[in-house]
Design goal:
Blueprint: H1 5-32, H2 43-97, H3 104-125, E1 146-149, E2 154-157, E3 165-169, E4 172-175, H4 180-185, E5 195-200, E6 204-210, H5 215-225, E7 228-233, E8 236-240, E9 254-255, E10 269-272, E11 275-281, E12 285-292, H6 297-310, H7 316-376, H8 380-404
């Protein structure tokens, strides 16, 4: 077979280019420490590398979520601890203020401290996290959870009962927040310590009392039926629930014609789900009754302050009323402390779970990085040996081409 001079040159150029490319590729591998520089180098390994990198990135995001959750829960734990300290102090003030030997000035001094604790509680229960969202508003992060109703003098919850969950593992979510509704509103119910919210066009509902052992029953009843509408017409009373159904026993009206409610001390008592409702007027019209059965800690502090300020101990009836109110406040504070302990236990459990999940994530990331390394990272011993061989081959190619390119018949023609 005849080989032309052009073929010799082209073949040598191709060989030099290929050898130079191989040497350059090996040099890139050595400089980056990576065996696979592009998918075409090893398609199967490249697919596995991308999979492992996604797993590592996902695990790093889980650990980032854990850091966010820990920060929020630690802030919540610290806030709850401060609120608990205030509840303990309120209990001390209630016990101190109940002492019958105190003067009005003494009680006003205690009430002043209780008022300062109300202000502290206002700040704590409206705490914001580092992102500027309210800690206890549930899903309504930018809604202030507790606002003072100037008309009633009570603090009202404005958030919702939502709880935010954050993914901290492939199959694990942790609640990173707690709603103020769950922490502060759902305290153990104290019989006789109910807030009656009464709206009326005409007529008047008097005292609202509750039987000693039926607070839970009444609360459940009101959650399903409230508000209750009391309708006075022609000396008769009917009571309907939120669905318009009659709930009075006299099917459906109670006859009040025989009572002079303005003077009769034995005014009729309507008992509904254990609650005795005393009627003080029968002027035709409608009165609506809704009851909030929970006393959160800030409203309990308000009750303590107001009870101390308004105490009238000049009569036996006044002393009895004061003592009863203070007993209810003390009982409610005990329930608040129990709820506080349960909340802190829950937060502590979640913080421990986050620590354990972080360890699991770190181990998984390490194993994944090891698997990634087996596919992606370069064996330097093999690569350096290959580089030396390719360098030698390239040098030999240059040397041999220099000899071949001098071969020509013109060198032998005289």
């Amino acid at each position: 077979m005849r080989i032309s001079t052009q073929q010799v040159f082209l073949s040598n150029i191709d060989n030099l280019s290929k050898t130079s490319a191989d040497l350059f590729k090996t040099q890139q591998q050595l400089s980056t420490g990576k065996r696979v520089l592009q998918p075409s180098d090893d398609p199967l390994a490249s697919a596995q590398i991308q999979k492992f990198k996604k797993e590592i990135a996902r695990t790093e995001q889980f650990n980032g979520n854990i850091e966010v959750s820990q920060r929020r829960l630690e802030l919540e734990e610290n806030t709850i601890e401060q609120i608990n300290n205030i509840s303990i102090r309120l209990k001390e003030l209630a016990i101190q203020g109940k002492n019958g030997v105190l003067t009005d000035t003494d009680r006003n001094s205690i009430a002043y401290e209780a008022d300062e604790l109300v202000k502290q509680l206002d700040g704590l229960m409206n705490t914001k996290d580092v992102q500027g969202e309210y800690l206890f508003s549930g899903h309504k992060g930018f809604t202030k959870p507790y606002e003072l109703n100037a008309g009633t003098g009570r603090y009202e919850f404005q958030g919702d009962d939502g709880q935010r969950f954050i993914q901290v593992g492939p199959e694990n979510k942790i609640a990173s927040t707690d709603s103020g509704f769950e922490i502060f509103e759902k305290v153990p119910k104290v019989s006789g310590y109910l807030e009656a919210d009464i709206t009326q066009t005409q007529g008047h509902i008097g005292e609202v009392g509750i039987t000693t052992d039926n607070a839970d029953g009444f609360d459940e009843f009101m959650s399903q039926n409230a508000p209750l509408n009391f309708t006075f017409a022609g000396g008769n009373l009917t009571v309907t629930n939120n669905a318009g159904q009659f709930i009075t026993a006299d099917d459906p009206a109670v006859d009040l014609n025989n009572y002079d409610l303005s003077t009769n001390p034995n005014a009729p008592v309507i008992t509904i789900a254990g609650v005795d409702i005393t009627l003080e007027s029968t002027v035709d019209g409608v009165a609506t009754l809704d009851v909030i059965s929970q006393h959160n800690i800030i409203n309990t502090a308000v009750d303590l302050r107001d009870t101390l300020r308004e105490a009238n101990l000049s009569t036996q009836a006044g002393r009895n009323d004061f003592s009863e109110k203070m007993d209810l406040i003390l009982e409610n504070l005990s329930g608040i402390e129990e709820k506080n302990i349960g909340v802190r236990t829950s937060i502590g459990g979640r913080l421990n779970a986050l620590e354990q999940q972080e360890l699991v994530n770190s181990d998984y990331k390490l194993f994944t990085e090891e698997a990634l390394s087996s596919f992606e990272d370069l064996d330097y011993n093999e690569a350096i040996s290959r580089f030396e061989l390719q360098q030698t081959v390239l040098q030999a190619s240059y040397a041999s081409f220099a000899k071949v390119q001098d071969l020509s018949l013109f060198n032998y023609i005289n």
